[in-house]
Amino acid sequence: MLMNKLKIPENHSGISKTLRLPENVIDDIQNLANLKNLSFNRIAISLLEFGLDNLDEQDKSKLERKKRI
Asked: How far apart are CA 13 and CA 43, in angstroms?
């Protein structure tokens, strides 16, 4: 079984959004950011993009239909 790998890009531009995350998730993201010498935000974005890119096919189809509306 082929597994996708997480690739963390360099920079982005965007808008501000507040999220409430469990403390253990915050700790894991911060530790990964420290290991990679990147910002917490950069790691969080990469993880979210990876999740969106690897959605279940049914959810991915629903999301694509919603984007077209």
From this structure: 14
Which pLDDT value is given to residue 12? 64
Residues 11-46: tens digit of each pLDDT? 667 788 899 999 999 999 999 999 999 999 999 999
* Residue among 30, 41, 67, 34 nearest 52 (CA): 67
Q: What whole-number distance in Å separates Cα of residue 41 and Cα of residue 14?
A: 11
Angle at 33 between CA 32 and CA 38, to 5 degrees: 145
- The pLDDT of residue 5: 81
Residues 54, 55, 57, 60, CA torsion sign: negative
Axis crossing angle, helix 23-36 with helix 40-53, rounded to the nearest 10 = 110
